[in-house]
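Readers of this paper often ask what the protein records in our data store actually look like. Nothing more is needed to write down the fold, since each code stands for a local backbone conformation. Below, we set out a record of this kind in full and without editing:
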Amino acid sequence: MIGILAVSHSRRLATGLAELLVGLAGGELVVGVAGGVETLGVDAAMVGAALAELEERGASEIAVFADLGSAVFSVESAIELAELEGRAVLVDAPFVEGAIAGSMTAVTGGSLADVAEAGEAAYLVRKR
């Protein structure tokens, strides 16, 4: 099963996105969050803990969506430290739209590569 990890400087933002993803997926999605609790910010330890939690909940592969620059560095470091290269990927995608597209692909049986591709394709979706 593919898990989805939302990484944000704001835990509330990541949690809100996770709630949206689970609601859209009908509860069939394993989603985790990482982000600042009392202050804004995220680090590799937070991301690593969230990756481990998703694995404990049955995710064999994980697609990670991050909001801003330093969150990206935290994700890359956490994946390397946890030796999850190939099983966890940072998706280069818009945070919300990419996570939605990737999540819908995951729940319909897509591979991790399919999830990443769908997330990245969200850059092309225009609102007008």
